[in-house]
Amino acid sequence: MPTILNIAAPKDFRLARDYCSYGYFLLEPNHWEPDTQTVSRVLNLESGPAHFEIVQTAIRPEPKLRARFDRSLTRPEQGEARRKIGRMLSLDVTHEQIKAFHKVDPRWTRAAGGGGRGRLSRSPTLFEDIVKTVTSCNVAWPSTINMNRRLCDVLGARSPSGKPAFPTPAKLARTRAGTLRARCRVGYRDQRLIDLAKMYHKGEISEAWLTDPKTTDDEAFKFLLTLPGVGPYAAGNIMQLLGRFSRLALDSESVRHGKTVLGLTGKDAAILKRMTAHYEPFGEHKFRSYWFEIWAWYEARQGHATTWEKKKTATAFTAAKLK
DNA sequence: GGTAGACCTGGACGC
DNA sequence: GCGTCCAGGTCTACC
Length: 323
What we know:
The chain is α+β, with helices and mostly antiparallel strands. The chain has a domain at about 5-110: DNA-3-methyladenine glycosylase AlkA, N-terminal domain (TATA-Binding Protein, 2-Layer Sandwich). Helix content is about 45%, strand content about 10%. The protein has helices at about 15-20, 75-90, 95-105, 125-135, 140-155, 170-175, 175-185, 190-200, 205-210, 215-225, 230-240, 250-260, 270-280, 285-300, 310-315; strands at about 5-10, 30-35, 40-45, 50-60, 65-70. The protein has a 5-stranded antiparallel beta sheet with strand order 1-5-4-3-2. Strand 4 (about 50-60) and strand 5 (about 65-70) form a beta hairpin. Helix 4 runs antiparallel to helix 11 (about 230-240), helix 10 (about 215-225) packs across helix 11 and helix 12 crosses helix 13 (about 270-280). It is globular, with a radius of gyration of 19 Å. The protein binds a DNA duplex through helix 5 and helix 11.
């Protein structure tokens, strides 16, 4: 009998607002159904992949979520699924932590969905977040969508209902570079992705160490810069996906934001330097402040993120359309 | 330490 | 429809 998990969430959690909060929610194998407000995807679990759909069943007195799987999960798998869904939805981020952010930046206290903005969605595993970040570097958004779709289609194991998972580190580690390039269209990233997968598979990338409060932000950032395919932008982005928001992830989109929203002028390098100074007052929350400004700008042009359809964003979020 | 050029893909543009 | 140009972040070689 298919497993159903009931999952408690922090009291300010709203599935639609908090899941549709970062671009990766539009990348395979993630899926958001605007009409039914349902999150779905395949999880890699101990005995193999399982597809699930998750909805919010209650807001008060306490938010509740219900996840329905396409197969029966063992008891250990149920724990694993809870952990991975918790990571995806940032359920470990408490109401108190969100309030601390709003104290520094009150603009997001009353965002759509009630309770205010603060959580950013991410992947069930750090490995998937790193790969998604590397596939977002040096390409336009449609290419990132395609690379992730092909990685799942070509290398992802299938759930009982036939849907593909994200490739596991083990699978990606033993894939040939030529296959990645020809069938997944990852270009020159082929060997870098394989090297990342090997490192992760061997335990050389430790999420426990990277998220340990005893590890400083500087130490974590410095380590991330040593990873293949990871430079200053990618490292900054992976930092926020680890729950460390004290760094910005500056790229060409940041320059666009600096010009169009903050009204900065001058050469790109100068704009980025001024942006770094601009967000400094937000301290350990600066990525959140920066990101929600960008997200609000997207929503002002494209409608609320909860209404976005995956296919349409491939054409709506090209550089030309965002000018 | 700073910088130029290569890397690869796909959208935009001109014909 | 086809060919060409260009944007995008990281890496390496070089000064």
